[in-house]
Amino acid sequence: MTNSINQQLHQITSGISVIRSSEATDSDSLLGRVAFYLNEGYRLSLVCAKPLPQTILVTYCLVGKNPDRRHEIQLEVKRERPELPSLAKISFSASRFEREMADLYGIIPLNHPLPKRLVRHGHWPEEWYPMISSQEKPKFESDRQVGYPFQEVAGSGIYEIPVGPIHAGMIEPGHFRFFALGETVIRLRIRLWFLHKGLEKLFVGKTPAEAITLAEKISGDTSFGHSLAMTMAIEDALGITVPTRVASARAILLEAERIYNHIGDIGALANDVGFSWGNAIALDLKEEMMRLNSSLTQSRLLRGTLGVGTVKISDHLDLIGIDRIASKFEELIEILTNHSMVRDRFHGTAILGVAQAKEMGCLGVVARASGIEVDARIDHPFMTIGPTASTLETGDVNSRFLQRVNEIRASVSYIRELARFLRVEEPIAQVSTPPRESGFSLVEGWRGTIAHRVEIKDGIITNAKIVDPSWFNWPSLPIAMTNTIVPDFPLVNKSFNLSYSGNDL
Amino acid sequence: MISSQITNPKAVESDQIKKRFDPMGRFFVIMICTLSALVAISATTIALLAITRPPWHGSTNLFLAIYGLKLATDPLSGVFLLISGSLGVMVIPHLYGYLRRNHLPTTTVIAIPIFIFTMALVPLANSTPTFFFFWELMALASVPLVAAHPNDQSGRRATFVYLAMTQLGAMAILVALAIISASHPGTPLAGLSALSSRDSNTLRSLAFLLALIGFGSKAGIVPFHIWLPKAHPQAPGPASALMSGAMVSLGIYGIIRFCILSLGTGAKWWAITLIVFGSITAIYGILQASVNKDLKVLLAYSTAENMGLALIAIGLFQLFRILHLPNLAAEALGAGVLILVAHGLFKGLAFLVAGSIQSEIGITDLDQLGGLAKIMPVSTVGFGIAALSASGLPFGSAFIGEWLLLQTIIHLPRDIGSLVLIGPIALGVVALTAGLSVLTMVKAFGIGFLGTPRSKRAGEAHESSTTMSTSIIALMIANLGLAFDPGVINFVILHLSESISGVYPRIALGSRISITTTSSAIFPSIGAALFIVGAIAIYLIRRFTASKRPQPLDEIRWGCGAKELTPKMQYTATSFAEPLERIFSDILVPRRDIETDAFDSLDLIVKRIDLRESPHDAIETALWNRLARALDLVASQFRRFHNGSLIRYLMLGGLGFAVVMVVTH
Amino acid sequence: MSYLSLILQITLIVVISPLIGQLMIKIKSKAEGRRGPSLLQGVRELGKLLKKGEINPIGTGSAFALAPAIYLVSTLVLSAIIPLIALKLPGSSNYDLFWVVGILLIGTIALGLGGLDTATAFGGMGASRELMVAALIEPSILMAIYALSIRANSSNIFKIVHATLSNPQQIASPQSALALIGLVIVVVAEAGRIPIDNPSTHLELTMIHEAMVLEVNGPKLAMVKLASSMRLVILIGLVVNLFFPIGISYSTSSVGSIILGIVALVIKVSLLAGLLAFVEVFLAKLRLFRVPELLAGSFVFGFLAVTASYFLPVIKA
């Protein structure tokens, strides 16, 4: 197979353009092609597979910034012998996408260093792959208990702390296996994927409107982020450009979601250091912000607002309300940052190094707190103006806390700037480029960059792939926890605050 | 190092096979035990006579042609004789059981009665040559006990270190005794004749320091303690019990006899030196005990801790004598003696249980034990009582001694100037020691005996034989007896104090223990009665309300959704130690490596992680190993002269002679 | 009459403990702008737990089974051996403060061993942490006792309180203030309150006290909960009476003075508990390895108190 690269310029919003390209390759040159783009500064943002009658089509989506470039590399593997070369050597993220595909599609990554199951449940029948739709849904033997083979830490004196999947709090299932020596965590292993919902398969056969509603349920706290990503992916596939007014309204709501979640996280951080007063103030603020959401969109969680080419938002944006929240927030931050005990708990706890964060492809708050400049609002914008970029260096709990603080501040002023675009009168959304088979979107949700890729045929979704930033960030939590003390884990976990649901689709 | 040898499954297995095919003869064992019992019983009898009757002395020219053997008894020697004698008696059944089950080198077995005999003779010696003769005899007799595993390297190293420390101590003692007897030749020891101020102060101070080093090395005083954690795991359980419970105490006997009584009142700094060494030993000992995971090593370090506490008491005794406070001095001495007596009993008990575990399971590494409560109930209760005592808690035998020590400290008179600072410092030391010993003993008991077995061998063990249990039960009763009614040794304290200080201490030992001058008192039995009343009340309430509750259910433990918890999910002894290692890292200097074998350079995809521990004694590493290297260096320089040339040797000899002649003139 | 006042004292502690614990929660809630549960919530919880059937975790032994009872009994014994409402209780001449501390430790140890006996990571982890705190707190406690015993020339707890009562000017001395600070830290640590432990957390990994008793359930949990709240009240009561014994009954002969003693104790304990709860609002939980530093701090206060007692002149009435 020869590599033929197609390039084209594409508009998302009036005034914003993207350079896209794609190529098809074979398994021999795959490694070289991906390596080439990674060296060019692209990052692997999504890998998806689509079963075809004879083959499975695997697509590697690489994205680059300055300018916004998106490149797709496609590879076909045979149904009867589904194998592809593992890219683990050059990309840690690829190694995890490969394990996911192995579990869901049965595609075997050759020479994979850690070919253990990732998404698969222990009791699934061996030869059954849920995303291969031609297969019959098997009978599950619920009593077939297969424990996950954790890689143990050798040495007597090490003990294991099993935590989860059932937790003391109201959180989703995840199993944390600490290999600890006294209070020191030698290595943490995390086993997620307890609730495979078959979400990507659920999208198949849905109309765009249904898909946008369904996307709100990918991760409840990121309702708007995910549904916006789905909307934009669909618009991208259909070749629709939205007017600036719509884009700015979307950007405002995206920031609103960021603000209420970040405030909640900051409160939770205070709570996890036993400073419940701080949490009480934060909860109060979060409630106020959610009421503001409700006044804007009739939904506290910003649901039900998006449609293809449109967004429903109240005409009255309560900027005074936002200012009030912002000033109360500053009071809270003053209390928290001046509290010596809180500061001591945050400082130097669970440092995530830049090198490791970069190698794992971390995104969002976690990445920016470790000094990595990655922000879809700047790198892959859909609005003509962007927020002020900010990163921190240290990568400890304190950085992740301060990063959230800075982002809330930036969001507040960003909303003020965006507000003036709401009044711009413009024509409605229009089809500006010819529709294509697939659409791809990158949206900076409050956790980080969300990537969606859909394929549409005859107004019906035929394939969907969703990547929540948590997918990239989860592996970095154990790395940050190494040599951290056991009782600091809840705090560290909260400082990452990753999504279980967005990760386990 | 040591534990790895013992727990090496192959070594253990071959050991087992040996046991089965080469048992110790029943007749031989009975003979050894009878002999030991006879010695121990007579020692106890003499001890009781020595304490209650007026001092006796006698001599014979039988053994040492020049000086003759001079023996005497007084209450002080009686007390120490009583500790070794009574412990000896109680250990015999366990010894029998142990020898019947474990194959030991014949020299080790034969050494046991000799060892008990010499231990009994040491406090009876009444002249410096006699004393030194017995002391060396005891030291030599104890060496085969340590050399019970001559075939493994750690065993040989332990023997070597023990021998080296013993001989270093003996050298120091020899010089000290030489100084003492040079100025007062032929003075009997029991006569309490002291070197007086007419003797050179420098010489006396030198003798004091040398005796402190010499006897301190026997008592496990830091930094001369390094043989303790090496020797004890090697010696068979009953021998460890005797060595730790009785022999080590003789080091303190030596310090009382020579550093305090024979050398006279002395300077204040002597007393302070004793207190400082005692404090360092107590804290360092318990810190090491709290971070070690081998049961016998832990107990050995705890021995050092207790000797430290006793030394603090003895130091206070010395200080109060210098300050002419005879009553407080008597209290301090009483506290010291009670600490030693209690230590003999509870450490004897603990080492016997450790011996049972060694004999039945072959593992003393706590991280491979666990769950013994269900399979070795007598040993578990025994260790529980020993641990309660070792923690210095109420209802434990060591509490009374430690309480008296605290009472002496808090009743320091105000008018002794800056010396009152000794009070809060010593109390801080005792308190930290007590706190850490609680942690250590909870670790040892909780990890070793509770929970579920961490290894297959621990899970398959059985209770030790009835004879062995007899000893354990006897020592349990002795411990509880001392805890609830220390009046049984009241006469010891009274006679001792009267004979040394000339005053009766104002301590009333009985079921109620009080210091008559201060209205401080404790009454363990009342506390126990309150506990019993409370327990009955709760039991009755539970009984009464039981009908209103659903039937109890057996259910799996909470595993956060997991059905099974593995034994690896239990807390470990190493883990118990880790927080302390962090807190006291400056003292303990922990050594631990984590080896990671990863697929990538950032350790993101890991193939294997291995935790390598290298437990060590920071003082041994920092001081003794360096000293050994330095000595080695010096020796290699000297070796250059040893080229085998006869002429050179003659020349060197002549030169040396000339130097001696010049110097002496 | 003296036996009656003993029984009264024990009953009083049992009865007010759940209420005081709830009072602290209430004050904290109010300070944070929440309504907080009713004052009777603690009693209701105990009642609920007592009605529940017991679950015996498979694999645990008698140490686990007995631990809650020993913990509770040791706490009941504590409530009988310290002067809370009256100065002359039966057996009071035998209750040495060092011994009282030992009884306190026995309860801690029982729970720790119970935790280790569950053979779970949490049980052992909690036990290790609790004992670490207990071990490092020992010097602070004993030093404070030392400081207090100097002025009474006795470590008998009743004698110390008596000495304070008959010579109340001593309280205004620097050594008393230093000892008080040291002891308050001790109480906070011993009772497992913020900043050392967070009694309201649900996160197993950060717990100290609660992790040890994670397997304890039903009536046994009721015992542990009751004993824990009793220990807090006893410790607070001990501190207030060591430093402010106002109102405590001199003798046990008059009913009026005993009632006064009860009322005084309830008021004093509520005030101090309320104060502690209010201060907690502004504190965060310390990092586990900062706790030793705090305890070392309380040791230093005790040490200064002792040296001050020796070097400063005695204040006599």
UniProtKB/TrEMBL annotation, chain A:
Q: Where in the cell is it found?
A: Cell membrane
Q: Where is the NADH-quinone oxidoreductase subunit D domain?
A: 273-424
Q: What is its main location?
A: membrane
Keyword Transport (UniProt): yes
A single Gene Ontology CC annotation of this entry is: plasma membrane
Give the UniProt keywords, A-Z. Answer: Lyase, Magnesium, Metal-binding, NAD, Oxidoreductase, Transport
Q: Report membrane topology.
A: Peripheral membrane protein
UniProt KW NAD keyword: yes
Q: Which Pfam families match?
A: Complex1_30kDa, Complex1_49kDa, NiFeSe_Hases
The molecular function GO annotations come to: lyase activity; NAD binding; NADH dehydrogenase (ubiquinone) activity; nickel cation binding; oxidoreductase activity, acting on NAD(P)H; quinone binding
Q: Which residues bind Mg(2+)?
A: E200, I466
Its protein name is Formate hydrogenlyase subunit 5
User: What organism, scientifically named, is this protein from?
Assistant: Acidithrix ferrooxidans
Source gene?
A: hycE1
TrEMBL record, chain B:
Q: How does it sit in the membrane?
A: Multi-pass membrane protein
Provide the alphabetized UniProt keywords. Answer: Cell membrane, Membrane, Oxidoreductase, Transmembrane, Transmembrane helix
Q: What is its EC number?
A: 1.-.-.-
Top-rank taxon of the source lineage equals Bacteria
Instruction: State the compartments where it is located.
Output: Cell membrane; Membrane
Enzyme type, top EC level:
oxidoreductase
Q: Which GO terms describe its molecular function?
A: NADH dehydrogenase (ubiquinone) activity; oxidoreductase activity
Membrane-crossing residue ranges in chain numbering: 27-51, 71-92, 104-125, 131-148, 160-183, 203-228, 240-263, 269-287, 299-320, 332-354, 375-400, 420-451, 472-496, 521-541, 646-664
Q: Per the annotation, which location comes first and is thus the protein's main one?
A: membrane
An example GO BP is: ATP synthesis coupled electron transport
Name of the protein in its database record: Hydrogenase-4 component B
Organism field: Acidithrix ferrooxidans
TrEMBL record, chain C:
Give TM regions: 6-25, 58-85, 97-119, 131-151, 171-189, 232-252, 258-282, 294-315
Provide the protein's localization. Membrane
Give any Gene Ontology cellular component: plasma membrane
- Which InterPro entries does this one have? ComplexI_Subunit1, NADH_UbQ_OxRdtase_su1/FPO
Q: Record's superkingdom?
A: Bacteria
Q: Which GO terms describe its molecular function?
A: lyase activity
User: Where does it mainly reside?
Assistant: membrane
The protein's topology relative to the membrane is: Multi-pass membrane protein
Keywords from the named record: Lyase, Membrane, Transmembrane, Transmembrane helix
Keyword Lyase in annotation = yes
Full protein name: Formate hydrogenlyase subunit 4
Task: List the taxonomic lineage.
Answer: Bacteria, Bacillati, Actinomycetota, Acidimicrobiia, Acidimicrobiales
Gene encoding the protein: hycD1
